[in-house]
Each structure stands twice: as structure tokens, then as C-alpha cells.
Amino acid sequence: MTAELTIGFLPLVDACLPILAQEHGFAESEGLSLSFIKDLSWATVLDRLLYGHSDAAHMVAPLAIAATLGKGRPAQPLSAPFVLGLNGNAITLSPELARSVASPGSIGDPAEVGAALREIVQERFASSGKRLTFGVVHRYSSHNYMLRYWLAACGIRPDEDVDIATVPPPYCAEALQRGDVDGICVGEPWNSVAVEQGAGEIVLSTAQIWRRGVEKVLAMREPVMEEKRESVMRLIRALCRAAAHFVDPVNWELNSAILARPQYLDGSAELIRRAISDQLLLAQGGDLVHFPDFMFQYREAANFPWVSQAQWLYSQMVRWDGSVYDPQEALRAGRVFRPDIYRAALSGTKEPLPGASSKVEGSLDVPTVVGTQQGRMTLEPNRFFDGLEFDPQDIEGYLAKLS
């Protein structure tokens, strides 16, 4: 008997895996039928999930943790048994600002761009008393945390030296065009839309800030996941097959055309194809630039829900909410990511499974063979741009280094 699941999503390229699992029959082969609800903001995606309009959702990972911890609303436990992808976001500035901090047509160096931006921030405030404003897609988003991490490491204090506002992804290019914000941190295709419209120029990829930064997850209410556990495990297997299909260059043209359909991203297949193939147009009229692993959807167990990644997000929540570190909260945050479900779904398949469920983030400079439960696995460099490492066994010590 076919099980039906409804999945909420925003029109972003990294919503690809559930869509392609349905379109290519991977879900059907697992006895699943997927239907989709498209929204325009992460707040609405979360509302639909919490009120039972959807069974699962494509969701920014910090939002699943925030909902579980009761940040901003009554707590409801969510579970994330699958990571939909790593990175895939960029920082796009208004053309004038971009050309003041980076060379046109080339991706910048995070430290150098940050240093140049710091001077502009200081000069503007000294001359006019005004602060630059940056748009992010949600308060509890990896975009917010990556942007803040970069700014702070470069000596720019978020909320004091610059303002940060929420702008839903489909409106980011418009907000830049209108001058409501001076820069945005958003996923594709919305940076490319801003570039094509002449509203902005890409200066950095978030993969330069944290080489293997966790991005979207498949989130579910914990009671729903337990109730539909068998269907969830079938969905995980279907998503893995979709991920393998997604990264194969032979399929890029077809998958771009599918994702561009009105019911999904309703956008340009060409812009979507660029994102899938790690090709970025940094400025209007320029040449495409190849940035390897701009999107990271499959290899190195990219879809594995590392507990340490959830706890890094929790550390940023504490840092930017101005709250006090709580060991019990850190445990609850880590438990949102469910490697046990991922392992149960893929045990006995050809998918590699790491031996551990947590690791020191940002610790690898060179490709490193790691122990596994099954298969073979080599993890590639995963550094933060400032060289710091995150040890989930010492979150409090890590936070002390950041303050």
C-alpha cells in the first residue's frame, strides 16, 4: 500500500531532493507518494508543519532547533533525520558596495572583503550616523549565523555596527533593488536573480566562511516521525537516490528543467543549472566563475545529520540571542538531529555510514579517511575561515573564545 506524505518547501534550489525523489520515481519505488506545498517564507513553512498541514518540511536547520527549544513560541519537538544539503548560499551586495570591497568578476577573500567592509561601515557611520543593513531569510537561519560569524570575525559588530533584517528569499533581489538593504545572504537562485537584474553583485560564498556548513534539513514533528517511522525510513532511501542523481552532471539539464516548473521554483532553468553545476555569475555582464562545492548535496555523507552540526548552530543561537549557555538545552538541540533514524534507514545499503555521530567541526585541513559503520568514507577539508574549531564536548569554552 502506498503511503502519502505532504512536504512543505520554499522555492530554492536546495528543495531539490524531495521534488526529484517524486519526479524520478524514487519515492514510488519505496512505496511513497509525495505531494508538496510551496510557501514564500520560513515562518509559514514552520506554521504549516506545526499545525499539521504538512508531514515534513524543507527547513533551515536552526529553525528546527529553535522550535524545539521554544524560541519565540511554545516549544514543539521537531526531528531532522536527513540533511538536505550543505552550503549553497552567497553574500550579495549592492553593486556600488560590492565594488568597494571586492574586485569585480572575482570571488573575494572573506578576511579581505571583511576588512574593506569594516572601513566602509566606520566611515559611513562617522559621516552620516547611518548603518548598513543586511537581509537574511530568517532570524533562525544558517544565513543569519554565517553572516554574523563572518562580520564579527572581521571586527564588525552585528546589531551595533550594522543592522540585520529579515527578508523572505523570493523578495531579496527586490529589497536590494529598492535600497531597503545593502546586502543579502540567501540561497540560490535568488543571488543570481539579483545579479541578472543588476541589483547586486556576489562577493562571497558561505562555503568560504565554513567549508562544510550545514544548511537545510528535512524536519518533522517528533510525534509524526515516530508514528510514520517506517515511511520516513523509506523516504530517506528515496532522498539518497535523488541526491546521487542530482550531483551527476549527466542529469543537470533535466533536473534544472524540472525544478524550474511553475509548481516548484517557477524560475529560470538556466540560473538553476548554474547553481547545480557550481557556476556563479558574480556581476551582470561578467563571465561565469566556477566555485567547487558551492552546493554540496551528496558525497562525504553530506546528508548525515551530525549531532555536532546541530550543536554548533545552538552555540550561535546562544551567542546571538544573548542567552546563557545551558547544557540541557545543548543536549536537546543536539537531539533534534536524528542519526539513529538515518542509520536505521540505510543500514545494509551501499550508502556509507560514519562510525561516529558527532565530530570536531572545522578540524580538517586535508582529506581524511574516517571510521565507518559501513562502506568507506573520506572527509575533505571543513575549515572555518578564521581557523577556529568547534568541539561539541566544550561548547562553553568555544563560546568564550568568540566573545
UniProtKB/TrEMBL annotation:
Coiled coil: none
Cited Gene3D superfamilies: Periplasmic binding protein-like II
UniProt entry keywords in alphabetical sequence: Cell inner membrane, Cell membrane, Membrane, Transport
Keyword Cell inner membrane in record: yes
Statement: the UniProt record of this protein carries the keyword Cell membrane: yes
Residues annotated as signal peptide: none
Classification via InterPro entries: NrtA/CpmA_ABC-bd_dom (IPR044527)
Locations listed in the record: Endomembrane system
A cellular-component GO term for this protein: endomembrane system
Cross-referenced Pfam families: NMT1_2
Main localisation: membrane
Name of this protein: ABC transporter substrate-binding protein
Annotated source species: Novosphingobium aureum
